[in-house]
What we know:
0% strand, mainly alpha, Leucine-rich Repeat Variant, single chain, 68% helix, disordered N terminus
Amino acid sequence: QNMDSTLHYIHNDSDLSTNSSFSPEEERKSKVQDVVPQALLDQYLSMTDPSRAQTVDTEIAKHCAYSLPGVALTLGRQNWHCLKDTYETLASDMQWKVRRTLAFSIHELAVILGDQLTAVDLVPVFNGFLKDLDEVRIGVLKHLHDFLKLLHLDKRREYLYQLQEFLVTDNSRNWRFRAELAEQMILLLDLYSARDIYDYLRPIAFSLCADKVSSVRCISYKLVSEMVKKLYVSSTSAFVVDLTNELVEKFCRCPKWSGRQTFIFICQ
């Protein structure tokens, strides 16, 4: 009976950024929508209750995290306020499998929510995942380009300083992490200016070209090749000249045969 009086509750943009404490009645209203039966949504939101994990299924929080983008798409961005608290609870869950599930889908959620809600509610979670375990970080790394392209340019540039951190992993033998970084950087070339590419992406690319694992090096050759193309078509030709000179100096004239071979592969 109480649902009719609260279905038309308006949750405007100012509510999204306030941290004031709600009364129980206001808290209940903030979870109300008219897209699906309210009882069904309430049942879904209760999946983050720790007692459910003990009595129903130990992985119920993981199932909840897996379904969240689908639920968000169904409810629409205007009803994100119904899911926001649940999402933040899942993002700070003690189980890394739950956080990993969210990390792999955060770029999909960003598309659903749009740039404004993404900047306010998803970017802080994304930043937390970047500092998490490798099992969680790989989720954001695999879709780094998909997420960053949805951000405004000034916010996107902030992540240039953090790309270097992806070279460091919990396990140094985790070469697939570095291979994925090289793949993503090829896509990231389209998102940044020639100056940013030369200043921030170039040193990482050169480091990957000298990786101990051949699979990482092979992808890195393509990365440097694409970098040369990108700088060549930019208005500032000095960057491509400097990059070419550095390739000659670092690889073509390298005292080791492997370095000279790297130069050949890049040219190829």
